[in-house]
């Protein structure tokens, strides 16, 4: 993949370095003044939350475990508790599987060096990632969409590098996001309204979206207004913390790249995919990138492409491309779209929109076409560390030409609790319509309990929520609210194919193996739900591998809800005390004799710097 240079950036480098120097001077001045005056605006919130998350008001619950045959807590002497030390301050933004030094040992072609490369056991850090000095709780949504405390992501490279492109401004002790972006000169709202004039974004038909190469995820941030949930991804570059900004803003995003490995999403998942100047070479490598988008788009889903090469006739000079070169790029994209049998439904000014056909019947030329390579795989959801191939995934069969292959999901919000097509068709082994309804009822009950345990659950205090072992997504469905979103993780070792069901419910999620680091920055989740995670991973990797990773991705003062067998939870409890977490063990809602229990934990507030370690 030839790296493309954004127009105009190279020439302004030297004057930009001057700006960097000046702004650094200002920065140190401001930082000094600011430190003298105490914390930023988020501090009030942080203080309030410290007080409120003490979990003191649980009138109906007994904090002690009554399960017989177990040692009481006092038996766990301090001598047995292992204490984890803070890592060096230079690891403040450490992302183990997207580490710059390790990346550089991998080939640059096809962006392979930006893909996941996790450290082997002997290179894992067994220490706690420190927050930067002055770290504060983020602003509540929707203010967080527009403002991020500078102390939390103290890097100004984006404000300088993307200054021309109007992504983000630095103003005193906060970053301000104007909702613009290279491709949204009139703002993201206007842009989305334009899309909504072609794509049914307004009536719940389109609910889930994939933003490839998302920048600071302004598109996803503004789609919340339309009740559309976007999964955004961008690579970790050497110095641009785009995805970190997105998550600080309270917008779902992961570190990711379209390189040589399949995307960690199931087939036929997203209602819409989007690329705005995302620098993915769609026409290259026999169309393998578009074929991957085709795999994850549901039948009838939309693909939006804006920026180069669209509208090249007007812009090729601005983009510093030759007419021939960019015309050829567009020609290739059109050719692959045709091969995929996508229907072009719109092209005007800066963007083009294609629609994936609803079934194979609506595409007669494809089957006969010579040179169309159909994927041989029997399981198109088996994607974890699997290489992308230049082949097309087949549609599920349909009974008549009007039918959506694989079934048509209901509009949102009915989708959330309706029986998902994959369940009603019986295509998810181990699950039935009956067990789906039971699962839903069970999680409604559990979430009700969680809200009693922590009465801040519903208030917007927790916006970025991680469900580490999501099954059918029923936890996320039960807790659903416009104030929060849930990243539903289906562990690869669980060997269940429920992630497609989660998308059919209008929720988002990702495949992951918890023996490795998640594709995110430190401190990006406010609340983590770990149901059955440690039973699942018993004898798969060390418990501390998983717990330290949870500590890395959890914000200071963030909360964790574990639900597991009591003996597993006792081990967890012992270990997290050595990680500066406060914990409380609670009985199952059906009483103390049920071996499954709940452990709630709150990560203490502490930041890097050797003087602060005692805090
Ligand atoms: C939503 O809008 C689209 C396009 O206008 C239409 O085809 C579809 O039937 C609508 N769906 C609902 C549920 O109203």
TrEMBL record:
Topological category with respect to the lipid bilayer: Single-pass type II membrane protein; Single-pass membrane protein
InterPro entries attached to this UniProt entry: Put_SAM_MeTrfase, SAM-dependent_MTases_sf
SUPFAM superfamilies assigned: S-adenosyl-L-methionine-dependent methyltransferases (SSF53335)
Transmembrane segments: 16-34
GO cellular component labels: endosome; Golgi membrane; trans-Golgi network
EC numbers for this chain: 2.1.1.-
Main subcellular location: membrane
UniProt GO MF annotations: methyltransferase activity
Keywords of the record: Glycoprotein, Golgi apparatus, Membrane, Methyltransferase, Signal-anchor, Transferase, Transmembrane, Transmembrane helix
One Gene Ontology biological process: methylation
Location(s), subcellular: Endomembrane system; Golgi apparatus membrane; Membrane
Similarity-based family: Belongs to the methyltransferase superfamily.
Database matches in PANTHER family: METHYLTRANSFERASE PMT2-RELATED (PTHR10108:SF1119), SAM-DEPENDENT METHYLTRANSFERASE (PTHR10108)
Protein name: Methyltransferase
